Amino acid sequence: MAGTKSRRPTPAIVRQWIRAGLGQGEAQAYQPFMYVRDVPSEGTSSMVRSRITGRNHSYLSSHELKVHLLAEYGSATLDIREQFALLPWDETQSIAAQLGIRHPFFPGTSTPTVLTTDLLLTLERPDGMELVAISAKLKKDLTSRNLEKLLLERLYWNRRGIRWILVTEDNIHAIRAGNLMFFETALNDERVTESGINPAEFSRRFEEHWTPSLSFNKIMSMTIDSMSVDVHTGHALLGTAVWSRDSKIDIDTKKLTHRDKVHLKA
């Protein structure tokens, strides 16, 4: 739906959003229930294009984005759906009433909110597909009220036999997430295709120039000179190789920066 959604919706407007399919569906046809433009966010909101789904994903915080990037890198991930609506609408209201918990309302209204899960992943398993629901929250935001909301969310997924995980900064692979962020722009950079260079070959050449004493920038400079491309194309090519697991750059041990040394996997 174009434009910013009403921030003081009536029940009729919410039902209209649900009928429009927001927070429902899968793969490229999926539309999140909330977009960055719809919600005032204290964190760093962002959008990222996924190679897995082929669409732009909308995140309300940098922590949610990190969880997305880790899922994007996961070899078992088949689909990522952010801001997934917990429908039917009245089910979480019913759960709240049974527990004696006040259900959230849209601010300034008497309209119950449609609760959402930050990310719903579809994972490929040896015996079929698994759905995993993820709430991505920072520890500082785990107030007693927010824990009540998370309980509603967890019980909703428990009813369906779907695993629900609370991901904080304590149980995220922070170094990998940061390094994937370092190469995030390579996910859909047209310069990779336009260069006519195989990203795996570019990474191999980068590794040939590598020595333990050289910085990332120095190795990159030597590599782009040897392959006659500019630095932005070089970064995109190397990042694409990392995302495709065609690079020996170690993204799990040390945070990558332009000025620091680079670790390679054995």
Description:
This protein is an alpha+beta fold and 266 residues long. The protein folds into two domains: 11-167, Trna Endonuclease, Chain: A, domain 1 (3-Layer(aba) Sandwich); 174-243, no CATH class. The protein is 37% helix and 15% strand. It has helices spanning 11-19, 62-73, 89-99, 144-159, 174-182, 190-195, 199-209, 216-227, 231-243; strands spanning 46-49, 56-59, 77-85, 116-125, 128-136, 163-167. It has a four-stranded mixed β-sheet with strand order 3-4-5-6, sandwiched between helices. Strands 1-2 form a two-stranded antiparallel ribbon. α3 crosses α4 (144-159). The termini are far apart.
Key words describing this protein structure:
266 residues, alpha+beta, Trna Endonuclease, Chain: A, domain 1, 2 domains, four-stranded mixed beta sheet, two-stranded antiparallel sheet, 37% helix
What is this structure, in a nutshell?
This protein has helices at residues 11-19, 62-73, 89-99, 144-159, 174-182, 190-195, 199-209, 216-227, 231-243; strands at 46-49, 56-59, 77-85, 116-125, 128-136, 163-167.
Largest sheet: 4 strands, mixed
What is the CATH topology descriptor of the largest domain? Trna Endonuclease, Chain: A, domain 1
Sheet/helix structural class: alpha+beta
The whole-number mean of residue pLDDT values reads 94
CATH class of the largest domain, named Alpha Beta
Q: Write the CATH architecture name of the largest domain.
A: 3-Layer(aba) Sandwich
Write the layout of secondary structure elements.
Layout: H1 11-19, E1 46-49, E2 56-59, H2 62-73, E3 77-85, H3 89-99, E4 116-125, E5 128-136, H4 144-159, E6 163-167, H5 174-182, H6 190-195, H7 199-209, H8 216-227, H9 231-243
Parallel strand pairs: 5-6
Antiparallel strand pairs: 1-2, 3-4, 4-5
Helix pairs in contact: 2-5, 3-4, 7-8, 7-9
Protein name: Transposase
Organism: Zoogloea oleivorans
InterPro entries: Restrct_endonuc-II-like, TnsA_N, tRNA_endonuc-like_dom_sf
